[in-house]
Amino acid sequence: MGDVMRRSGSGKLRSAIVISFAAGAAFLAGLVAAKLSSPRSEAAHAPQVPSAQRQKALEHVEAALSARFTGRHLEALDQFRKAASLDPSLRGLQCETGLTQMHLGDFDAAEASARRSIELGEEKSNAFALLGLIALERSRGSGQPSAAREAVMQNVQASRAADPLNSMPLYVLGEFHRAVGEEEPAVEAYRMALDRVSESDSILVSTVKAGLTGMQLDYKPGSPPYKIQQINGIQRPEELFFAAADALLRGDKAAAAAFLSEAHEKLPEPLFKALLQDPIFQDYAIGVLSDPTGPSNPQP
After folding, report:
1. How far apart are CA 140 and CA 100, in angstroms?
2. Element (H, E) at 261
3. Residue 58: CA count within 13 A, CB half-sphere
4. What is the pLDDT of residues 134-145, one digit of tens each?
5. Nearest CA to 280 among 230, 211, 220, 222?
6. Can you name the residues that pair with 230 across neighbouring β-strands?
7. pLDDT tens across 196-247, in order?
8. Which of 63, 124, 203, 255 lies at 20 to 30 Å from 163 by C-alpha?
9. Residue-wise pLDDT tens digits, 65-87
10. Is 88 helix (H, G, I), strand (E, B) or coil?
């Protein structure tokens, strides 16, 4: 991807890619979190999971999403497995497990989990899109992303057939075109994904907030500063919120305001405002932001 960016110098492509990671956060960090609380349909004789046990399972899911947001994928996988052991009827666990396994580079296991999700009739559109993304990441790891073309296209088509309004297959399509250097199709796929991203804002907000909650719980005085993560050389805009939260926990309000100012430039206004309402910013940032909807040129 870096070669594509250097070769094109396209501001349009760069903008599309950067903004796409706002949508990508919903896809790749907490894709079906909003649906995990719904038990799948079981046969009449299936035992009911006690409410306290189901609640404990959901706590493991929340811990898994928080861990994955901060790159602790092994921990996330362990938490998803604990959730499944407590309540295997939770919808979406197979898809979430597969996504986490993909992050760990265990492509065979990730593919098996995605296919199991399809067999169960759960998150079929997301699971097909995940299969396409797994194929792309497997080929990208071997240095030949173009080898995934047929698998990506087939799974994107199946994903869109299962849910024509789902943004994830369009995101995966954009990722493929970008990986093989096809700039115009990449921009168009990202554009179509972004046309639908407003419908996914609530998922993105909830999953980013899960990550912020995890940061507060895990923070220890003296721990190293948060390192902004990148995917294929591109910084995800939501990472700026994590960096701002970390700065606030350290008492560095000027740095926090600078990160938030940068985030304000990169995210759609309604999304930025929604994320800024997280309690960590309301509790710690008093007196930092003269305008709570957007700091203006703070000095770090």
Report:
1. 17
2. helix 253-266
3. 16
4. 999 999 989 999
5. 211
6. 235
7. 655 445 556 666 776 777 777 777 888 888 888 765 555 667 788 888 988 9
8. 63
9. 878 877 889 999 999 999 999 99
10. coil
Cβ burial, residue 64 (10 Å; 0-12/13-18/19+): buried
pTM, 2 dp = 0.63
DSSP string computed for 179-236: HTT-HHHHHHHHHHHHHHHGGGHHHHHHHHHHHHHHHHHH--TTPPPPPPPEETTEE-
Angstrom distance (rounded) from CA 186 to CA 229: 22
* C-alpha to C-alpha distances, 300 to 163, 231, 263, 294, nearest whole angstrom: 44, 25, 14, 15
- CA atoms of 114 and 273, how far apart (whole Å): 34
Place of tokens 């759960």: 122
> Cβ atoms within 10 A of the Cβ of 284, count?
18
Model confidence pLDDT, tens digit, residues 233-277: 556 677 888 889 889 888 888 898 898 888 888 777 777 777 777
Cβ(64)–Cβ(45) under 8 Å? no
Residue type, position 38, single letter: S
Q: Among all chains, which residue has been given the structure tokens 């493991």?
A: 60
Give the amino acid at 290: S
Residue 41 has pLDDT above 70, yes or no: no
When pLDDT is averaged across residues 125-137 and rounded to a whole number, the result is 95
Are 138 and 148 spatial neighbours (Cβ–Cβ below 8 Å)? yes
What is the Cα gyration radius of the chain?
19
In total, the chain counts a number of residues equal to 300
Average pLDDT, the chain: 76
For 16, 29, 76, 168, the CA distances from 66, given in Å and listed in that order, are 26, 9, 8, 21
The two beta strands, 230-231 and 234-235, are: antiparallel
Contact 24, 43 (CB under 8 A): no
Q: How far apart are the first and last CA of the chain?
A: 31
